[in-house]
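Example (one chain per record):
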Amino acid sequence: MFVNLKCVALISICICFIISINAEAEINDGIKLGLHGQISAWSSEANTSDLWSIRSGVRYIPEFSTERSLTNELSIASDISLNGYWSVASELKPQTEVELYRMKLQLKSDASDMRLGLQKINFGPGHLLRPLMWFDLIDPRDPLKMTDGVWAARYRRFFSNNANLWLWGLYGNEDIRGNYEYATLADEPEFGGRLQYPIPRGEIGVNAHHRRAVIDEANPSFSENRLALDGRWNVLIGLWFETAIIERRTKNIPYEWLKLAMIGGDFTFGIGNGLYVLCEHEKISRSKEWYEDKQDFQLSAYMLSYPLNLLDNVNLYGIYSWEMEKFYNYLGWQRTYDNWIINLNLFIYPENKNVNNDNQPGMINSGKGVQLMLIYNH
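Predicted structure:
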């Protein structure tokens, strides 16, 4: 019988806390305790379907961490953080939520890193369009870089030639996440891995993942296999790519094969304080057979970033859908102090009545408007 990973993680982290507290009381040596947090507040005004609405909210993420050296080369660490927020919109009821955000136990050395619990897992060189967004939902517009974690055991092994091997097993993550189209079958483990290997002027990665997915309760579950290849090089400019092929073994969906390919590049021009330019292009296709392209669409994205001075930075994001012939534009100004961050953003997105602007409080995905966000880290 498969052991419940959530229970194992909770028990393990509790044991780690007890060990740390006892060790501190006895020898008061080799132990690090930390309490950090982030408070953010936002307010936005957006126009969708000729109606203006105001959304505001407050979020607090406290994090408690411990670390203890076991030997000169081995240490054990843990951290627990919560995500609590209150948000209100002019046309909706206030939302209040407090949930577990991260909870993991970590055993690390110079050559390896083992993590168990609720954690963030992300990889790949992509920035805006990411075929390898398998386990996270990081929004490049979000200054908080918020994303729900996954319950997992993840192992990384580092080699002397700068290669590294990832192995992971997931359990208890039934919600649709990342760029998944279907939910994971409840009470079923999923597993995969990644090999990242250095090559001249860059590195290349090979990825694989297997799980059982489900469309809905009326349809049987099916196997889903993912294979992916990615790479990055630093030549005259930075260059990278991500490509993935996904097989869904079921006849209950229109297309059993999903293929994603993205290429990107960046460069800093010597204009003023330095103008950073990043561009990516992605093609997504679905088909009944792996070699066909029955349904496909393409996206192009860019990001411009310019530092006005040591404190202020301006960013411009844009995504264009070639099939829909629609542009998503986002202009942001950020001022950064030691503990404070101020963000002022303007956005113009195509209106979509099917988009829920409150899936992640603080982020808006339809209409046009302005948003102010204050962030304090302690």
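Caption: The chain has one helix and 19 strands.
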